[in-house]
Known about the structure:
This protein is α/β, with parallel strands linked by helices.
Amino acid sequence: MRETEYTVANSTVMNAMESMKRLVDMPDREKVEFLTEIHNRGETPAEIAGFAMALRDMAELNVKYPGLTDVVGTGGDGKNTVNVSTAVSIVLASMGIKTAKHGNFGITGHHGSADFMKYAGYNFYMDEDEIVKNLDSKNYVYILAPQYNKSFAKFSKARKMISFRTVFNILGPLTNPLNPERVVLGTYSDELANLYAHVILQEGKKGFIIHSSDGMDEISPYGENQLYYVHGKIEKTKIDPINLTGHRTGIEKISTADPEKSFKMLLSGLSGQNRDVKEFIGLNAVPAIMINGMADTAEEAYDLALKNIESGMAIKKLKEVCK
């Protein structure tokens, strides 16, 4: 898609925002008509930005906290890799980066980020004061999407009446109600990564949008990875894992369909015992470390992440946030 096609007036964002707010309480028939129309002509980044802003505004959480980072994936890649974005969020918090991880239980895969946090003993149900307190003292909070983004549920019946994917399949990763200023977002297709990059640009945020050549919605340890760096403009860059780890790791070393086994694998990676999972976490921590200004190069960021894991700080942080 041409760059000029993404140049949309700010009024489009605001109009989309108001449309979503009106639509949420309309009959399912009207929701179906709206979602079908958007699907048939194609969503624009400005519209998606406006829809995401509306859903965040309608979330049952009114906390303003500056300087937050989120690491999130779209899911849907069918790889059943361990929940690496969740592990990365813990690593970031242990490095002093204020992190608001937004996620859910497994929907498109066998296990989601919330499944990992549940096994770890995390308390998802906090009031606003507790959320702020956790960010202040622990640099971390996990935001369970259905707990706060209840507007999504009001579209569930209409979405089931439609045979195709709708804009709501795109919106999930963009609707963290704490509205983090820095975002690392992984997706399973380059076309979708390009779209997300322009949405993040429309919202004035800083971030990396990731797509692996093997279809993974995170940085792959065995394939080349395309990254869209958003910082007032969009720049493309690449990460080849062999330049950081020195080798390629097969997917069988970092994936499982068993939620409990996935939890144990991720724990062993966070504690530095499982080399393959540890390196997978380190690779995926690189973009978030860089957008927070803690490293200038991917090599520096990767080394920082591994040192943090090997020192025991990451696993210590997981225990702390789950108290």
